[in-house]
Structures are given as structure tokens and as C-alpha cells.
Amino acid sequence: MATKKVFVAGFGGQGVLLIGQMLAYAAMYEGKEATWMPSYGPEMRGGTANCTVCISDKPIASPLVTTCDVLVAMNGPSLDKFEDMLVPGGHLFVNASVIHYKARRTDVNVHYVDCTHIAEHEVGNGKTANMVMLGAIIRASGVVSLDIMDKVLAKTMTGKKEKLIPANKTALSAWKE
Amino acid sequence: MAEKKLMKGNEAFAAAAINAGCRYYFGYPITPQSEVPEYMSRELKKAGGAFIQAESELGAINMAYGASAAGGRVLITSSSPGIALMQESIGLLCSVQLPVVIINVMRGGPGIGSIQPGQADYNQVTRGGSNGDYHTIVLAPNSIQEAIDMIGKAFDLADEYRNPVIIAADGMLGQMMEPVVMPEPKAALTEEEIPVVKPYALTGHKNKRDRHAINSVWLKQELLENYINEYWPKYEKAERELQDWESRNLEGAEVVFVAYGSTSRIAMEAMEMLADEGIKVGLIRPKTLWPFPVNAFKEIDFNTTKHIISVELSQGQMIYDVKLAVECKLPVSLINRVGGMLLDPQEIVDRTKKIMEVK
Amino acid sequence: MKPVFEYTKGMRETELHYCPGCTHGIAHRLIMEVLEERGDLGNCIAVSPVGCSIVAHQYMNVDMMESPHGRAPAVASGIKRVHPDSPVFTYQGDGDLASIGTNEIIHAAERGEKFCTFFINNAIYGMTGGQMAPTTLIGQKTTTCVDGRTIEQAGMPMRMCELISCQDRAVYVERVSLDSPANVRKAKSAIRRAFKVQDLKLGFAFVEFLSICPTNWGLTAPKAMEWLRENMMPYYPVKQFKCPEEVKEVK
């Protein structure tokens, strides 16, 4: 497998960094190499947040992403700004809960994910919107397998967070193309 | 083998230090290294150590000086402007020959600069900004795993050479996450072991030996000269024995990149892209910045190599060491970004081709 | 025959470099005598400053280290983390503690560091040749205020006991004077209380010693003592600012 590059962007507080981290955990537990790299700025809340994830069978040289195989746009400004980074034939995930217009690109696979609606009405927990998006990314792009997510949730949600595992599992499978 | 864990660089630095038997850490918040004091404030106590959030970087390094003199294994970390504040005491630690490990998670400079990754402290860490004759050993990891391994080695080198050892990391390494494995943990020295393993330490003379005096002031200059000449051979030994580097594809290379830290990874990607275009590029990656690995340059294939390129996130600082090592045998060019801006592989590719055309 | 007086084992048998009449010798001896009484010479770890007493480690018979200018409280904080049960003190002058090192002393006090600081206030920079100190009095002449310190040019002299005693975790704060045999005896009691505070881990202990600098003041030692009483004592009152119940009875 050549290196798969994923770019996740949105507002701070949308779980952007967590989506990327979960992908990196999944890749690691699948025995692959992975890097996760956040953008970081002085603002703590409400600013823009993005992160890049590289997944490969070989050691990863640069963790930087200038073009990507998967782009996740959690808000409109991120879609506008980063849409061109996607390689032709790549996967574009649009957070349809806050982005109410269509992507410009026609040479990529676009997936509109109404993640907040699905989280509130089908999972029953609005806080799992980012996990609904993560489930969509995994199932549509195949960068990691959905099966490994049981292990990721068990390893990352320990102690007080353990009780959130069932809702997160539901969220990962909630989106339907 | 221990299980792989996905760790953020800064947290891995802290965990690696505790793992290496470090029990004293004195920190002060500064981006992009603040996860280190955060981690230490939670974890060091559990390991039986002590953490102080110092009043400033001056406070932090001087607490480290006290704890090191008392026989403790000490870590301090900061980012560029914070390391600038510590310069006085780094020179002092060298003058009194005390070990301490310092991690500089470099950001853009000069001045307060930017909080994005940089390498413009190359001169600061390899030459130092304190007064007088001294050297610090400087190690430069390019992955979180290598940083973990180097931190363990840094503590041992600091003790062996009785000298500060600096880890030159950067914001990219500090902020990113990678799967890592911690080596076997080392035990910290017990209070009984300190006077045996570190006979110079201040532990109280217990009325059994003369009092220890750790002094940096010399009122008779001829004695100071004698003292410096007495310990200086250790730096010559370091220059002979500690040079460390990774080299790739030097045989038959047309161009050789010299790059360290995060930048070396970006350069490696550019190498692959150039190879796809049929341009053979080699790499020398210094893993020690001081001593600079001049021996690495003997591996260059002078029959084929026409250009040496120093790839750095600084306005041409390492390039002077590269030029000294190349001894005028080949032209040395610079590919760089500054201020917290990163190079991207395509930019390195384009600029490399341009350099090859001109010459 | 039973000896009635002996040279303290706390002082090493070497000649002091201090000027004739200087009170550093008295302060050194008092601290070392107290440590000897306590049987603590072998346990103590101390920090000397930058200033005239930089080489106090040549005189005091305890494990000791120098500190960069002003940073002794940070250095002592580090020592105390490695050896929490050893008696630790810093010995600092007014330039070191009240000028370049103000940050470190205030924060050590507020953290309630379990060491003692002995502060020598002689209202002048001695080692560098008599420049204005943060504690130089209004009207006092020095080489950097040859017509006398003015409020307009340099502000008011720093009163460190008053400042330190505002910090809750500085639990013992006392100003003493080395100008007379009676006051020297009181100073020794203050040192005993300071170490007792450290034994009991009650918090930070701070003792200021009003001292003289005959050389840089341009006075003979007896005249300098008079000058201290007439000029320093009104502005720097000799008193106990704070003292925990547990050590009040320590004389």
C-alpha cells in the first residue's frame, strides 16, 4: 500500500483532531505505520483546526500533506480552502450538517454526511457527530478497516469514558451512503 | 517487546525521560512544548520524583542546576526564546561540569518569533550563547521513536561527560503523533547510591569527608586556565567518538542533501520524487549536531557527486559546518525556509533542479 | 581543664578575604555555630550568591555551591527536591537578592520552600566597588549616585522583609542587626528559629541582617556601626515580622 494521506479540517471543538487520532490509532493497531500532525495556533476555542494523517506499510518520511487521498471538510471555509488538495479519484467527505452547498470537484468521490442529524436522531447522542463522520470515512474510503475500531475504542476509551463505547460503536456504523 | 503506543512527541519526550530514570523536572509553559510540563506535573510524582512549575526559564534551569549538583537525574525543556533565557546557566553548568538534559522544541525566530516549527536555533544549540569556552553535546532526532531512544542516551552521555546534553527537536516533532515503543525502564539512583555513583554530588559531608564546593568563580586566572585545560580533552574525545549520522544512497549520487530533524524527513520524500525523475540524490543526516559528523562526508562519492545542498529551516546556519566538512571540494548550496514555515517536498525538488542547472 | 571557648568546626581554618570590619565574618560564624550546635554540619547543603560572599564555600564547612547572580533560591529549590530532609540555606547579599534575584526570592517564598534564606543588607554593592544597591538609602552616596540617591532618579529603597512577609507561605520573617554584641546574640537566635522552621517543614524562613560595608561607605568600622544605627534602622526597622507559634520559644 502506498502512503495514504488524510486531511481533516474544521472549527475547533468539532472533534477534528480526534477524528485524525482515531485513524492513526486504527492504522497502528492494524500493524501499519502512521503519523498524525495537528496545525496549532494561539487560539484555544473556535479557531480553525486541522490535522493530517499518513498511513503506510513502509516507514513514513514526511508527515506533511500537500495533496491528499482523503479530505474531510467539517465546515464551509475548510471545504473552500482545501478542496483542491484532493487527488483525482480521492474521497471528499462533506459535513452536510453545516455545509449546505455542493462541492465544486467532479473528479472525486463526494460523500455528504449529515453527521449532526444522524448523531442526534439515529445514535441519540449529538456529541457523537464526529464519530458518525469517522465511520463514514472508514467505510467509504477503506483507509483502515471498521473491524479494528473495536480495539481502538477499547484502548482509547478507558475509565470514565468506557461507558461511551456503545454509543460510539453505534455512531461508527450509523451513516449510510 | 513492549506494546506500541501512539504518542504525541512532547508527551513521549517526558515519558522517555521518566523511563530513563529522570526524577526531577522543572518547567515553564511555552508553545510548542507545553505538553511536557503538563505531562510531568501528572506523571513524575507517580514515579516518586518532583516537579516544579518554575517562575521563569531562569528559575527552571537553576532548579535543574541545584538538583543536578545534589545528584539527581534532571530534565528541562523549553522552546527557542526560553532556551535563550537559559544560556547563562548552560555555560555555568559546563563550567562546573554538571549533567543535565535539555530539550529545545524549536520554533521560528528570532525574538519572540512564531510558534510554528523552526531550526533557526542551530547556532544557539551548537555554539551556545553563554560566555566563555564550552561545548554542549547536541543530538537531533527525526522521529518520535528516535527521540525516545536519544533521550535515554542523552542522560547517559550527560553523566559520562559531566556536561549538559541538548536534544534539538522542533515544533513538528513535539506536536505530531507516531506509534512508539518505550525501551526497558531504568531505575533512578537511590539516596544511598548517589554519593557512590556521583562522588562529586552535594549530599552533606556527614563528617566523613571534606566539604564539597561547586564553584564557577576563579580569583586566580592561572588556576582557571589549568582547570579548563584539565577538562578540555573530554570535548576532544567527544569529537572523536560521538559523531553520529545516517547516510542514504551516497554511492553514485549526483546531489547530496544534508538535513537533520523533521526537515530530513521532508528531504527524504523529495529524494524519492527526484529518483522517480531519474535524478540520484543521496542524504547525510546528522544525528549529532555537536560534534558535527564531519566523518560522514568521507562517504561522499566524489566521482559522481557534483552538488551538496544544506536543507534547513534557517537562514543558512548548518551550511557553515557543511562547508567546513566538505573542505571546498564541492559547491555547497542552501535550500531553506524560515520564520516557522516548512519546506514541502515539491519545493525541494524544484529548487534542487534549479541548483543543478546553474552549476 | 575544660575549654570555655572554641573555634567553631563550622568554619574552615583559612583566612577570610573580607575587608577589615566587614560583618560577613560575623554572619558566617553565627550560621555555622548554629549548625554545629544542631549537629548538622554534615547534613547541610548551602548556596552562595554572586557578590562578596561568592566564595563562602571556602570558609563554611558544609557542602556548598555557587549560584548565578540572584538565582540561589531556585538552586536551593532544586537541591531540596533531591534531599528533602537535609537542612538547606541560601546566603545572599542585597544586589543578588533584592535586585537581579527578586523574582526567584518572591516565588520561593510563596511556594513555601522548606529552606532558609539569610539576607545580608549593607545598602551597597560591595564586590563591584560601591555602586548603588536596591537597598541604598535616599541621600546615600555611591559610585553610581555620587550626589546621593534621589527618589526621582532611582525610587525608594527596597524593603525585603516587608515584601517577603506579604507572602503567605513565608512563615518566618525577621530582621536583625549585626551592630552590637546584644544584637549579634539576637541574630543567632533568629538563625536557630529559621532552621527550626525548616525542621518542622512549616514553610519558608527568611532572616535579614543589617550589615556594614566600611570600605565602600568610606567609614571606619565603629563609625559604620553608628551610621547603620542612625540611618538604616529608622528605614529598616529591626523586628520580627512573622513567627510561627511552634518556634516562638526557640532562643
Describe the overall structure.
The complex is a heterotrimer of chains A (177), B (359) and C (251). Chain A contains six helices and six strands. Chain A has 177 residues and is an alpha/beta fold. In chain A, strands 2-3-1-4-5-6 form a six-stranded mixed sheet, sandwiched between helices. In chain A, α2 (76-82) links the parallel β4 and β5. Chain B has 359 residues and is an alpha/beta fold. Chain B has two domains: 5-180, 3-Layer(aba) Sandwich (Rossmann fold); 245-358, Rossmann fold (3-Layer(aba) Sandwich), CATH 3.40.50.920. Helix content of chain B is 39%, strand content 19%. In chain B, α1 (9-19) crosses α2 and α12 (261-276) packs across α14 (345-358). Chain B is globular. Chain C has one domain (24-247): Rossmann fold (3-Layer(aba) Sandwich). Chains in contact: A-B, B-C. The interface between A and B is medium-sized, with 19 and 21 residues. β9 (213-214) of chain B pairs parallel with β2 of chain C, so a sheet runs across the interface.
